[in-house]
Task: inverse folding
């Protein structure tokens, strides 16, 4: 018999926590930015803020928070194709927890579509996850402080002095304002590295009936 599985149920699930921690550990060995519990929590909070601002309610927001928290579990298997493996992992865990199949389908569709190489927004939950994930650019996601060892992705994240995602339900605009330290990374470097992600965000915003705008150091980029 299906039961109502909450975000808190998922957040307290030891299996979910272990997979996220191991995935983050694996990515650390490979030199990627942090994708652990901090990122999971930030994304789950942001998806709720996005959908709430746009008038979505209740269970849809809860499912989006669950997807946001679980979305990077596949990294414990491999970075490549982690969206799809993570979706399959989430399906099994949520099934074991008693979630009904229709709700599982919503969560795993969002997880399976969050990577820019293979995914796109297919509904409100997946759109909110994409926006929350791809706009989480911040200095404290970079591992270590030896800038001589940073690749371009590290430099872009470390250069982000501040970033703010603004969602306006009245104007139907979703805006990312980011301030970059030009001595570390130029606006052009940012757009070159994250262009695919920002275009994915634009399509996700359109799925939510909104326009996506990107401002870097006060200048409109997208």
Result:
């Amino acid at each position: 018999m299906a039961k109502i599985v909450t975000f808190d149920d998922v957040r307290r699930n030891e299996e979910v926590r272990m997979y996220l921690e191991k995935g983050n550990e694996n990515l650390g060995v490979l030199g990627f930015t942090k994708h652990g519990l901090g990122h999971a929590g930030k994304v789950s909070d942001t998806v709720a803020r996005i959908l709430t601002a746009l008038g979505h309610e209740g269970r849809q927001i809860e499912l989006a928070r669950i997807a946001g928290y679980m979305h990077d579990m596949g990294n414990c298997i491999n970075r490549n194709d982690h969206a799809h493996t993570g979706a399959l992992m989430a399906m099994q865990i949520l099934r074991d927890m008693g979630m009904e199949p229709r709700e599982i389908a919503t969560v795993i569709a969002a997880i399976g579509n969050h990577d820019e190489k293979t995914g796109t927004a297919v509904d409100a939950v997946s759109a909110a996850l994409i926006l929350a994930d791809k706009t989480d650019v911040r200095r404290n996601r970079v591992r270590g402080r030896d800038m001589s060892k940073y690749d371009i992705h590290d430099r872009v994240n470390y250069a982000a002095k501040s970033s703010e995602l603004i969602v306006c339900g009245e104007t139907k605009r979703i805006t990312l304002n980011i301030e970059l330290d030009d001595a570390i990374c130029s606006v052009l470097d940012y757009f070159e590295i994250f262009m695919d992600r920002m275009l994915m965000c634009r399509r996700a915003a359109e799925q939510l009936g909104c326009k996506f705008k990107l401002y870097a150091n006060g200048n409109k980029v997208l």
